[in-house]
Write a structure and sequence with these properties.
mainly alpha; Ribonucleotide Reductase, subunit A; 53% helix
């Protein structure tokens, strides 16, 4: 007869890992990330980052596998408001199927419908890449800064919803998906080799330009459905911009020697984004579509061009303001020529 299996000896050392018990208390907003940032679990500048998936506060183990994480210092990825931005993101999720009044779509003159669909085509393409890019950086972020990872995950969900809603708009009212863009500006985001480079180019610059379009879209949207789409998308985009500005501000404060490096990233991006990339309003089909919508028809194209120039000026003004808030106010003096013409 085989021997009866032996009962393994219990090891309950995990019951007493910390001397002081920790109890997080809900705030008026609920049990938020700020509410659990306490005691041994709180964010710190000098935590030992061991390249494993261990989340901040968990006790390390000697045989844990390393994951090849890239960033071992907090200021490589941190943004001071990332916790509250994440909380807002999960509280303000919306559905493109249920929260857009699709029944308010109405038959439009062919030129206006096609113009709206061309803008929607461009934005669906842009927002698809805007969700893909942050996902590439998630494996490189230490579990000690898990809040940054949570925020980026919420952004990916936002961008997925934007891709979804703009594709639906293009297919919902007799138009359809139209001209693909060249993708120069989008490629620039994918090619970023550093987290801060990615965040500055995507959150501060590219999404800032898109945000200006969203705000304008609410004004010129030909139906209530269009206006709601742009308003809801702009609400999400504001969080992404805030993260980028706060991250850049943190980087410049903690590692001021990186200032010229960041200027160099912007030099390259401004040159590419002004060349008609699909994410830029100077891409001819998008430019013409916007002018038709802004002017109220192709027979009022000149009026649309005048309003387009105001939009472009607003994009650049808001871009420089974000950089100024982040601590890069000297960007105005070296702004690329294609953007500088709208800065004054």
């Amino acid at each position: 007869m085989s021997a009866a299996p032996t009962t393994p000896e219990l090891d309950l050392s995990w019951l007493d890992l910390y001397d002081d018990p920790t109890s997080a208390e809900p705030t008026k907003k609920g049990l938020t990330l700020d509410a659990i940032d306490i005691g041994d679990y709180a964010s710190q500048e000098d935590l030992p980052r061991d390249m494993t998936p261990r989340l901040r506060g968990a006790t390390a183990r000697e045989d844990a596998h390393r994951m090849g994480l890239t960033y071992n210092t907090k200021h490589d990825v941190w943004a001071d408001q990332c916790r509250s931005l994440y909380e807002e993101a999960v509280q303000r999720q919306w559905s493109s199927a249920r929260d857009i009044p699709w029944d308010t779509l109405k038959e439009l003159p062919d030129e206006k419908e096609r113009a709206m669909c061309q803008v929607a085509t461009m934005l669906a393409e842009v927002e698809f890449i805007a969700g893909d890019v942050p996902g590439q950086w998630l494996p490189h972020i230490s579990g000690d800064e898990f809040e940054v990872g949570l925020f980026l995950m919420s952004q990916i969900m936002d961008e997925a919803r934007h891709t979804d809603v703009f594709r639906k708009r293009a297919l919902a009212n007799g138009g359809g998906l139209l001209q693909q863009g060249a993708g120069l500006g989008l490629r620039n985001l994918i090619e970023a080799q550093d987290f801060t480079e990615m965040s500055v180019l995507m959150h501060v610059q590219a999404e800032g330009f898109v945000q200006s379009m969203f705000r304008m879209g609410e004004l010129i949207g030909p139906t209530q459905a269009d206006k709601r789409i742009f308003r809801m998308a702009a609400q999400d985009e504001s969080r992404h911009l805030a993260f980028g500005v706060m991250h850049l501000k943190h980087v410049l404060s903690e590692t001021p020697e990186r200032r010229e490096e960041i200027h160099h990233y912007l030099d390259k991006a401004e040159d590419r984004s002004a060349g008609g990339g699909s994410g830029d309003v100077t891409f001819p089909p998008v430019f013409e579509s916007l002018c038709i919508l802004l002017g109220g028809g192709k027979d009022r194209f000149d009026e649309g061009v005048a309003k387009f120039l105001l939009l472009r000026r607003r994009q650049v003004k808001e871009y420089l303001h974000r950089l100024d808030v982040a601590g890069l106010g000297d960007r105005r003096e070296r702004l690329g020529s294609a953007l500088a013409q709208y800065a004054n």
